[in-house]
Amino acid sequence: MSQKPVIEKVENINTNTKFIGLQTLHWRDQEGKQRKWENAYRTTRSEGGVDAVSIAAVLKYKNSTKLSDVILVEQYRPPVDSNVIEFPAGLIDKGESAVQAAIRELREETGYQGDSIRVIDESPVVANDPGMSNANMKSVTIVVDDIDENAPPPLQELDDGEHIVRHLVPLKDLHKKILEFSAEGKIVDARLSHLGIGLDLAQNASTLF
Description:
CATH class of the largest domain: Alpha Beta
CATH topology of the largest domain: Nucleoside Triphosphate Pyrophosphohydrolase
Radius of gyration: 20 Å
Organism: Wallemia mellicola (strain ATCC MYA-4683 / CBS 633.66) (Wallemia sebi (CBS 633.66))
GO molecular function: ADP-ribose diphosphatase activity
Keywords: Hydrolase
Number of helices: 4
Shape: globular
Order of helices and strands: EEEEEEEHEEEEHEHH
CATH architecture of the largest domain: Alpha-Beta Complex
Strand content: 35-45%
Helix content: 10-25%
CATH superfamily of the largest domain: Nucleoside Triphosphate Pyrophosphohydrolase
Distance between the termini: 40 Å
Number of domains: 2
GO biological process, one term: nucleoside phosphate metabolic process
Largest sheet: 9 strands, mixed
GO cellular component, one term: nucleus
Number of strands: 12
């Protein structure tokens, strides 16, 4: 008879690191067999149990026929030794909600802020890479209204050592642009890639299925 898997012991591995720790999980599987699993975890998890937030932010232009853009960021990520194209994102600070962190990170990484921001969705907690880590996050969807397409972009509020480049990509062309980024040798974050694939499937569903 199959039983529910259970973690029997968590063994922390001393790494003396600031943001990420390592554990060995001792667990029993559905057949009652004892097993081990190596696991990375965030040492900075907030009181609410959520590590980070990712922001899908869409710009809507005023008095214009220009279609909506999605805001992407590009930055060098040492673990993959490459520039990565991704959504604005960041860790949730102590005392912050996911929405508060999303608004702050959007302001810092892209410069967009103020009364024109509308939060239209906050996801449940989702896993980042459950085969390797217990790291989790929430996705927050934001619309930034009344953008003047002729105005200069707002100033970013980057921390020391941050080198983040903004990209405004037409939402309808997201999948195509993602392929172009990849062809340039840049790595695309999986969450962004999945959105691009989903939008492309939705746009072409009548001919694909």
